[in-house]
Amino acid sequence: MMYYGPGMGGGGWFFMWFIALAFVALTVAAVIAAIRPLTRPHAQLPASPAPAEQLLTDRFVRGDIDSEEYEQRLQTLRAARL
Question: Which of 2, 36, 42, 66 has its CA 20 to 30 A from that of 54?
Fold first, then answer.
């Protein structure tokens, strides 16, 4: 039987397994980090009124315009947005 040196010893085997496990864990984490944004649904923000509609509503609340003018301008704004 031939002997090729002292070998790794107990600590060497532990270090080798630790490095291999860390490499596998980092590889799995990298794959998950790359795939996760592609599979997650995008967050839906609540719909808020357009700034122009908000200004129009503010003018109506203050009494600057009457309800007929408010409705007419609101329809015009919404038609232009489509």
Answer: 42
